[in-house]
Amino acid sequence: MYDVEKVRADFPILSRTVNGKPLVYLDNGASAQKPRAVIDAVTRAYAEEYANVHRGLHFLSNLATEKYEAVRPKLQAFLGAAHEDEIIFTTGSTQGLNLVSYGWAAPRMQAGDEIVLSVMEHHANIVPWHFLRERQGVVLKWVDIDADGGLDPQAVIDAIGPKTKLIALTHMSNVLGSVVDIKTVAAAARARGVAIAVDGSQAAVHMPVDVADLDVDFYAITGHKLYGPSASGALYVRRERYPEIRPFIGGGDMIRQVRKDGIDWNDPPHKFEAGTPGIVQMIGLGAALDYMTGLGMQNIAAHEADLRDYAMARFQGLNWLNLQGTRPDKGAIFSFTIEGAGHAHDISTVVDQRGIAVRAGQHCAEPLMEHLGVHATCRASFGLYNTRAEVDALVDALELCHELFS
Q: Which residues does the UniProt record annotate as the domain Aminotransferase class V (predicted)?
């Protein structure tokens, strides 16, 4: 049985107060808090085990290398990859998606070639493709979402044309919580010889992910949302795609030999991991993955689904709350405005006085904001340690906002 109070006890920061109130942390979509297991792993790595990894022959270097490389099979299992070498260590989803842009797409795409993406993408899954538009004349084809915030997979499939080379989609919207049917899109893309890259930054946190079953080419995740350290993450790359990718960062560790007249590359994934890596960050991510898998991703998903349903029921009683994204199968992410409130920042400021952390702004999703016809929203994003009581605290704070702004 999922014991949320026991889970909460694993997170030291949840015992503090903010503005004299118990902290209610509902900004998990931006970055999640860290359990003691991660904090201890990072502290131990710096205090007792730190050295640079790979090629060192001394005890500490071998120990650090062992701890660092042990994270790769954990990520393989967490994402359901068929092979351990399909996991590239990154600083997060942004670096992973840029690796796809610079390393795979740029050398393969010409003026007039197309990339299909949805209007609800995070900027990390938009800006790298704009680079190709600006520099190489690549065309971006946008697919709109439905009225309830869902993305019809057939609409994406219908956007595929003879010049489409790549489909770039989020697996779960960071603003709406909408889950995208990646498997259906990927099957159609593969039948047409089109690659598919997925931003899994949100989905991998909230539900089990199996990249082999999804049958995608690239899948990016970020560690700081997975209850791990910032500047940690990974990119899954289908092994068959490796020969098509050129390195886009050069330096140590990604080479076998450097000569005056040429270079011999290291084997993937190390070919794409140049320089001294985020050693401690990745060790911390490994501890976070251990923590999450120990709880069970299905159990986490079920707990968050209960929070989603309870929050949705409470929000439906607030007829002055404008909720964006209402699909019943969405993640526990809620973006909203309040009638009469001047700006989302005003809402977040009032809510913060109650000790409740939410995010206000455009959430790095400006095309989506334009599509929704709003300048900004407040976002409450729930995680594995949140409770129904915290939903009630949020609703009480929103009712106060309504009183102040009406």
A: 24-394
